[in-house]
Design a protein that fits this description.
Number of helices of chain A: 7
Helix content of chain A: 25-40%
Radius of gyration of chain A: 16 Å
CATH topology of chain A: Rossmann fold
Order of helices and strands of chain A: EHEHEEHEHEHEHEHE
Number of strands of chain A: 9
CATH architecture of chain A: 3-Layer(aba) Sandwich
CATH superfamily of chain A: NAD(P)-binding Rossmann-like Domain
Largest sheet of chain A: 8 strands, mixed
Structural class of chain A: alpha/beta
Strand content of chain A: 15-25%
Oligomer: homodimer
Chain lengths: 207, 207
């Protein structure tokens, strides 16, 4: 059982929150719009609670599930309230054509979060290669993760396993740049090769 | 039936060549070392032939299966001999730590090949997210491809289908940069999350 806080009330927040409740985790939902957070917590059921935006989150793992441009500002706004937390960045900083990243080449949102967060916090990139609509179906997907802190990565992996998903480590936080790039490939597949949003990347040998 | 030429005699050349022969395609093997090319053509059996390095390749599709640093020099060396051909770049320009690309951020080996090739040639990125050892197993893997020329991409897709593999278009040639980055994620999975080379990325919804 992991205690998590989800900052955000969109599709990914809802999908992760639902799986987290089903997996027996303690879930806190936080939104800048308190009523939306309360609505989502109610919809999630279980023991889901609502937290106050900007206050110290109840969860040991804090999943920042907001649009990419808001991720670092949210972390900055929280400041020392995130001390000691494991911060999970799930964002996809796509440019408008979805063929490049809307951030400099030598970084990633996850790495920028690590710069902005308290030194005692750890950052893990996860979930960004999965569509919320697919995640919501509750199938056993692969979740690619990266991060520099092995203990934090282990905690996130354990949480992911509680969702009946398979965590797959791709390396250090620098790899978050390439996971964000892999997010672009997933989008490219959805709009070209596969042509829908009913799939996920997996590490398998079919056949 | 597609007529292809493979420049290179390594593991990927062998794996693609074997599947191509099994799929009923016409296969020419070309190597800077002519005897190695002849050995591979013999090993492939079927109607596989050996071509002369630098001469006009027999195949309509030319697969450049050499180490990444040699890809552009080979294309430059060929020059007009590649006029009208569909050039397939399968390379992975990894840095020594395999957490970044050994080329500038705004390009890819495939895009550099397009700059170096004759104007009448087309370039398609393909196969770089698959380990040769897995490809050699003959299982029905997903092959991610990108390119700007729809006709060339269609020809490569048809060839890939003859190998009993599934071609999945991720978009224009600019996406080759992110396919090369996805190659890094595959390597990261092999050395961390999966811990072996017995898998491939696929676009699936398991369960």
């Amino acid at each position: 059982m992991t205690s998590i806080s989800i900052i955000g009330t969109g599709n990914m927040a809802r999908a992760i929150g639902a799986l987290a409740v089903a997996g027996g985790n303690k879930v806190e939902v936080i939104g800048r719009d308190q009523s939306k957070a309360a609505d989502l917590a109610k919809a999630l059921g279980g023991s889901a609670t609502t937290g106050e935006f900007g206050a110290v989150p109840a969860g040991d793992i804090v999943i920042v599930a907001v649009l990419y441009a808001h991720v670092v500002p949210v972390v900055v706004r929280y400041g020392d309230a995130l001390a000691g937390k494991v911060i999970v960045d799930i964002s996809n900083p796509f440019n408008s054509a979805a063929d490049g990243l809307a951030i400099p080449d030598d970084t990633s949102i996850a790495q920028e979060v690590a710069k902005a967060a308290p030194a005692s916090a750890s950052v893990v990139k996860a979930f960004n290669t999965i569509f919320g609509v697919v995640l919501a179906q509750g199938r056993p997907l692969d979740v690619f993760i990266s991060g520099d802190d092995a203990q934090a990565k282990g905690a996130v992996a354990e949480f992911i396993e509680s969702l009946k998903l398979r965590p797959l480590d791709v390396g250090g936080l620098k790899m978050a740049h390439w996971l964000e790039g892999t997010g672009l490939v997933v989008m490219g597949l959805a709009s070209h090769g596969v042509g829908n949003y009913d799939f996920a990347l997996g590490a398998t040998v079919p056949g």
